[in-house]
């Protein structure tokens, strides 16, 4: 039977693997989700990785991520408590390693998903796991920009039933955060035409090709 140390080691390894995936596929990029004539943009800041792991730490969120990405995170740098229970972290980590699937496969957008503590204006789900998104606001509640940020990873928890509405995504685009316009198409519904409402956000040449 696995000891407490064995269990914690397994969680640590899971966090490290997930951080490497996050750094390679999500951090430093932005994603544009389009459904009908509506759209939103998602960014994956390094200091939001911790929120998704289900563990607690005394490190800053950035240091936690950096240590995990470099595979130097130690067992005494994170812990479990009443709000961050072992079983929850164990359930989340396999999905956290698969987080890029919510950016490069057909997904559903949920509106106003309710949890015990917060209502997420938007969430993205593949029905197996759901990423709750929050607006990018400062401590005073002022909007910093129009990006949505990942705040909660929920696994098989009836997120759809807890939401007001659900829409299947038509398109997902991505770009490096340093680039002005979206230049990579990750997901598309071949039966849909790219709407004019995102023309200003995507590469002109790409838009022309897509609608020829």
Automatic annotation (TrEMBL):
It comes from the Bacteria. InterPro entries: PBECR4. This is Phage-Barnase-EndoU-ColicinE5/D-RelE like nuclease 4 domain-containing protein. Pfam families: PBECR4. It comes from Anaerobutyricum hallii. Residues 15-187 form the Phage-Barnase-EndoU-ColicinE5/D-RelE like nuclease domain.
């Amino acid at each position: 039977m696995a000891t407490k140390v064995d269990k914690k080691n397994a969680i640590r390894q899971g966090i490290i693997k997930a951080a490497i995936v996050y750094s390679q596929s999500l951090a430093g990029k932005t994603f544009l989700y389009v459904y009908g004539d509506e759209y939103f943009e998602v960014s994956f800041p390094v200091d939001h990785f911790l929120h998704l792991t289900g563990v607690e730490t005394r490190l800053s969120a950035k240091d936690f991520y950096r240590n995990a990405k470099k595979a130097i995170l130690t067992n005494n740098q994170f812990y479990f408590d009443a709000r961050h229970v072992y079983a929850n972290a164990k359930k989340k980590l396999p999905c956290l390693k698969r987080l890029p699937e919510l950016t490069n496969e057909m997904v559903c957008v949920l509106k106003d998903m309710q949890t015990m503590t917060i209502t997420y204006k938007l969430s993205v789900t593949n029905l197996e796991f759901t990423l709750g998104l929050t607006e990018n606001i400062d401590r005073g509640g002022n909007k910093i920009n129009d990006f949505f940020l990942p705040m909660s990873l929920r696994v098989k928890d009836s997120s759809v039933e807890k939401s007001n509405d659900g829409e299947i995504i038509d398109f997902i685009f991505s770009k490096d955060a340093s680039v002005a316009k979206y230049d990579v198409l990750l997901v598309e519904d071949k039966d849909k035409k790219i709407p004019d409402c995102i023309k200003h956000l995507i590469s002109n040449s790409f838009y022309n090709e897509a609608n020829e």
